[in-house]
Design a protein that fits this description.
The protein is 28% helix and 27% strand. With 564 residues, it is of the alpha+beta class. A four-stranded antiparallel β-sheet has the order 4-27-26-25.
Amino acid sequence: MDPTRISTQVSVKHCSLCQGDTEYYCFKCQQDLCMQCKKLHVVDLSTKHHTVTSYAEKMKYPPKQKSSQSGYPKQVISARSQDPEHEPCVMPFIGHKPKKSQPPVWLSPLERSEIQRRQYSDMIYRLRGETIYDRSVLLEGLRHDQEAGHKAVTIRGQSKAEKRGQGLKDLIDEVLAGDLEDRSIIQKTRMTRHMTKLLWYYHRFEQLSETMETRPFKFLRIMTRKHSPRKDTMKTIIKILVNLMKEIRLVRSGILRRAGVEDLLTLLSSPVVQKSLSLTGVEYCYHISCVTPDRVWVSDWDNLILTDTATGKQLHRVEHSLQSGHGIHTVNCEGELIYIDEEHNIIKLCNDMETTTTLIKHTDTTWIPKCVYCSPSSGDLLVGMSRLDTDTDTSTGKVMRYDNTGKYKQTIPHDDNTPHTLYEIPVFITENNNGDVLVSDWRRAVVVTSGEGVHRFSYTGPPSGSRRFRPKGICTDVMSHILVSDSYTGTVQMLDRDGQFLSYVLTRQTPGMDYTPWGLSYDVTTHSVWVGSLNNNTMSVCRHITRHLHLTSKSHCILLSRSN
């Protein structure tokens, strides 16, 4: 073969983000990624839920497209229930190892291997996107503690050495300060007396030997033979020691070190609007309930729809929901929709988008449910209710707590016979990580009570400003911050868990915010906030929390590369 006819040109695919060689592929972004870009891609909050695989896996196992009549998969998996092993309505621990169920026996070997491969793939995505990042944060903290501890030990050791050296110096000074000649005479006298006693004992022993012949030596031999351990005795002692050592058990002491939320996440100095999209099927975005980063429920006055966050298209529509601009729907830990229907019943829609269950039947016509929220920690339903006093033409409100089956548990305020001055009309409701119940009330205040129903504080607006405050959508983030939209100022405000104003997350001057924010929903997977519009059908995703991505350039990179 003529070597001149062989082409030396080779086509090499480059990374979509840099000029590195392609080694991985993201199905969500449809991007080629090099090793370094992939390491950042799987830990960045915006993309850590994306499906990233090697090119060999991409060519061998292309993703299967799921379809249904509504354009939405039959099973909607909530971001809060991606761990198959966790109990219902319990947030999964970061890095928790999922329990893999065995594939059905009637499947073919090829199908069984495919299911197992996908199970392991999910585990790998969770490990490199969550667990390894958490461990890298812990490693960084341990390194800091090691440096600080070594420094502290060094300083303490130097201090002790100085004290001991000073004591030795004082002793030497004391010896040198005395009369050495007098001391030597005294010491010589004592040694002479001691030698005299020894000679006396020696002569006394010789006299005993002459009178008693060899009795002392026989006595010593008897005593030696009497008290020296024999071989069987030594074996017994060794056996006892071995048995004692076998009973020794190592006991873990101290508390297992875990990375806290403040160690894993940090607030952005300037929150950003990552993207905005126009939705089909609604005119406004009064309320939002996040299912996954790709699916959210959105409602306006007349419609309640499931939306694809990538395209803004409607995937499913719920009939006969309550006409309201308030928080009339929520999502439980299994990703199922819970909403208030037009007859004021609390309904659960299963993931098949067909089966419905009436959780709470509306029987007391004096009280009307206005908003509902499902607790991610306990699964309880919090229902904000209101009634109109026709004599005084004023409204009073309360919050009812039910379990996940609709069984009554608690009323806030707890005494139903007293005037309900705590709330007027609860329009939006949520729960914080510490169990506090937060209500956006019609009387222009955010009212916060403890889980037991004790009033903690009421927030009526930032300390500076016009003091005009109209709270609407409300949610909390993983760091227990309270986020509330204010329709009067057109802002989203952030408070700490005790109601102290911290900052504005969004204002009218924020790039991409050309509308008045209304509905809010927090995505626990990407730690971002979905913001709905009062003016049109625009919905935006805002980020105010990020990870410490600088750790990916240290030991985290090594661990990530090993995970593949």
